[in-house]
């Protein structure tokens, strides 16, 4: 619920990123917050290569402005062999 210029965002951290926070949590952020705001909040390096989905859609622009009730999923790069 957005009140007083705040938004609520569901954050899902996968694989090794759950060292930075719980697998799923709610973050209360200022309106106008970006993907970079989430990375800062969870102490995830902005230089780290990541796969980021916003409402199940891949996003590469870390300055993308988040909206209330958004779900953001963050994955480390996936490897195989």
Give short descriptive properties of this protein.
81 residues, 5 strands
Q: Main sheet: which strands, in order across?
A: 2-1-5-3-4
CATH class division:
Alpha Beta
| Rounded mean pLDDT score | 91
* Strand content range: 25-35%
CATH architecture: Roll
Helicity range: under 10%
Give the total of beta strands.
5
> What structural category arises from helix and sheet content?
mainly beta
State the shape: globular
Q: Can you walk me through this structure?
A:
With 81 residues, the chain is mainly β. The chain has a single domain, classed as Beta-grasp domain (Ubiquitin-like (UB roll), Roll). It has 1 helix and 5 strands. Strand 3 (51-54) and strand 4 (57-58) form a beta hairpin.
Could you provide a short overview of the structure?
9% of the residues lie in helices and 33% in strands.
Summarize the helices and strands and which ones pair or pack.
Blueprint: E1 6-13, E2 24-30, H1 35-41, E3 51-54, E4 57-58, E5 70-75
Parallel strand pairs: 1-5
Antiparallel strand pairs: 1-2, 3-4, 3-5
